[in-house]
Amino acid sequence: MIELRPVEPADLDKFFEYQQDPDANRMAGFSAKNPSDRGVFDHYWQGLLNDSSVTVRTVTADGEVVGNVVVYHSEGVPELNYWTAKSHWGRGVTTAAVEQFLREFTERPIRARVVKDNLGSIKILEKAGFRRIGEAQGFANARAAVVTEEILELS
Q1: How buried is residue 90: exposed, middle or buried, by Cβ count under 10 Å (0-12/13-18/19+)?
Q2: Domain N-acetyltransferase, which positions (predicted)?
């Protein structure tokens, strides 16, 4: 069973652990320059958790913390981000979490950005009703290269 709940302090240890996976970082593309720097991680998460305009949820699968869903505002539009532990990829966890989150977070339009070759994430967003509206270029620390991102939107 997939559930969303408010972030608890102990969840951050799991989020940090999941951030250490090089494959997950590569798929996300946009990660910390040094994902193993706990100080940078903690600073980033405290900023999210202390910002009243940000909505953050922990994702659990059968009671186990397996990821998170975050919405923050970028250029005046809410932007969806999520991270799921690699051990739970391909099991429908992220699809279920995104769909649950979008029932709770009803502000529209909402956007998401995904590295163009992250087909699994694009598929998740399209299942939730997002449509491609553009592309952007950005430097991805995890790949040490400029990548193309798909910009998707749910109206």
Answers
A1: exposed
A2: 2-153
